[in-house]
Amino acid sequence: MRITDMFRFAAERGEPVFSFEFFPPKNDAGVASLFESLRALRPLGPSFVSVTWGAGGSSRGRTLEMVTRIKRDTEIEAMAHLTCVGVSRKELEEQLGVICDAGISNVLALRGDPPRGQREFAAHPDGLAHASDLVTLAREVADKRGVKLCIGAACYPEGHPETRDLVQDLRYCKSKVDAGADFLITQLFFGNRSYFQFLGRARAAGIEVPILPGIMPITNVDQIERFTAMCGAHLPSGLSAALRARRDDPDAALQLGVAYAALQCADLLKGGAPGVHFYTLNRSTATRAILAALRAQEPWREA
User: Are the CB atoms for 243 and 276 separated by under 8 Å?
Assistant: First the structure.
């Protein structure tokens, strides 16, 4: 099923869309662990899961393998990530052809981060430089094959790490939608004001597609500090102080992270967000607990 159809059906029922992001496992043990997580997740009714492309496109073959297998073996809809990093336009066309032929209905089109050790993104000499270019290419390939591909793209409520000018960043975001992106998923954030302010700016700019907030439950203090430094997400001062106080108590930090994310998600859903996309880092226990709590409370009914 196309993710845009999920948004429509969920809205008709007055319910949100919940999705989970995983990365491709490196070995058979990781694959077994991933599918065990998916089996545990299924009773909670996830709308879809996504599988990342891997650093520098290093795991792209496994990404498509995992997406195809998830759809077949778990009956959970799956979305494949696709990036421009280190590949030519011809290679991207070939990968998109494989995606279409495999019956994969949903793709998240991303420029991609610079490979490890590189500070700036550099396009392949025969490749694409912007996510909007990839969205255009994906739409072209799908149309030629007569496939109704649903294409997602990323957005950045606090600005892209390379573009802190929010006005310019919004222009880049709109270019993806104008190129054919059907929905957007945000970069992780910890202050809901950032999401709602971005939503207001996006709607004022004529961006009408669904904008799904991306949430990463905090499970490790050092890890989240590295992530936020890399992607530019802001940790509210109160949350930051509470995490520092629990740096030497991993269990307490985990409990705080889960509680904070649950409250954050409830507030987003009360405020009218169409759902939540969880960045799991392949550790779904925390996100399963949060989704179970949200399903029990149904904060969207209070909107």
Answer: no
Give the integer Cα–Cα distance in Å for 38 and 282. Answer: 10
Using 50, 70 and 90 to split pLDDT, how confident is the model at 229? confident
Could you give the domains of the chain?
3-294 (3.20.20.220)
Give the separation between CA 70 and CA 66, rounded to whole angstroms: 6
Rounded mean pLDDT of 220-240?
A: 90
Nearest to 96 by CA among 85, 78, 109, 115: 109
Instruction: Report whether 18 contacts 284 (CB < 8 A).
Output: no
**pLDDT score, position 117:** 66
Q: What is the DSSP letter of 246?
A: T
Residue 276 β-bridge partners: 18
Pull the structure tokens for residue 1: 């099923």
Residue tagged active-site, from 21, 158, 162, 208: 21
Q: 139-148 burial string, b = 16+ CB within 10 Å, else e? A: bebbeeeebe
96 and 140 in contact (C-beta within 8 Å)?
A: no
Let me know: does 166 contact 201? Beta carbons within 8 Å: yes
Count Cα neighbours of 139 within 13 Å in the Cβ-side half-sphere.
16
Beta bridge partners of 238: none
Residue 79 pairs in a beta bridge with: 50
d(Cα 191, Cα 198) in Å, to the nearest integer? 12
Continuous H helices in 113-191 = 131-144, 166-179
- Told to judge if 15 belongs to the known catalytic residues of this protein, a careful annotator would answer no
pTM score of the predicted model? 0.94
Q: Which helix (H) or strand (E) holds 98?
A: helix 89-101
The CA distance from 51 to 227, in Å, is 19
